[in-house]
Amino acid sequence: MSRTVITFGTFDVFHVGHLRILERAASHGDRLVVGVSADALNLRKKGRAPVFSEAERLAIVSAIKGVDEVFVEESLELKRSYIEKFSADVLVMGDDWAGRFDEFGDICDVVYLPRTPAISTTALIEKISQV
Ligand code: CTP
Predict the structure, then answer these.
(1) How buried is 106 (Cβ within 10 angstroms: 0-12 exposed, 13-18 middle, 19+ buried)?
(2) Total structural domains in the chain?
(3) Which of 5, 46, 59, 122 is in Cβ range 3.0-4.6 Å of 29 for a Cys bridge?
């Protein structure tokens, strides 16, 4: 039977850590669905708008090999309903979230993958702004 994987993130200033987690998420099933967080959600949670708009971030993520479907994640509190809506069998998250989504173990497998070392959107923005 075909397995659907779901993962979530902002994917702003797309970098190799984003690419690697999407590649590894895809390897956990047959179909990969990615929730890309809304501009308004980022503004609420991080206090700043992403560099790239949600339309741009969706376009980039949807163009990555192995990504089958993308949608805008409007709220962090809706994870359970997104998992159900897309009939996901596996939730993949970076291990910066380790343990935080174990509650969904009743409806899907929950897998935390190690982050790619030494790169993040925040670090990139800082590095570029120092040039
Ligand atoms: N990710 C990863 N390795 C990295 C950076 C991110 O595996 N070096 C993963 C995260 O664990 C998450 C996904 O990529 O599952 C999207 O992460 P996101 O928060 O958008 O990227 P960050 O670079 O962590 O952004 P920020 O610095 O703004 O927190």
Answers:
(1) exposed
(2) 1
(3) 5
Using the structure block, give the residue that is written with the tokens 């809506």: 85
46 CA closest ligand 1 atom index: 28
Determine the Cα–Cα distance for residues 119 and 33; give it in Å rounded to an integer. Answer: 23
Tell which atom from ligand 1 comes closest to the C-alpha of 11. Answer: 20
Pocket of ligand 1 (CB under 6 A): 9-11, 17-18, 21, 93-94, 96, 115-116, 119-122
Per-residue pLDDT tens digits of the chain, which is 131 residues long: 899 999 999 999 999 999 999 999 999 999 999 999 999 999 999 898 999 999 999 999 999 999 999 999 999 999 999 999 999 999 999 999 999 999 999 999 999 999 999 999 999 999 999 97
Q: Which structural domain range is residue 87 located in?
A: 4-129
Could you tell me the CATH number of the domain that includes residue 10?
A: 3.40.50.620
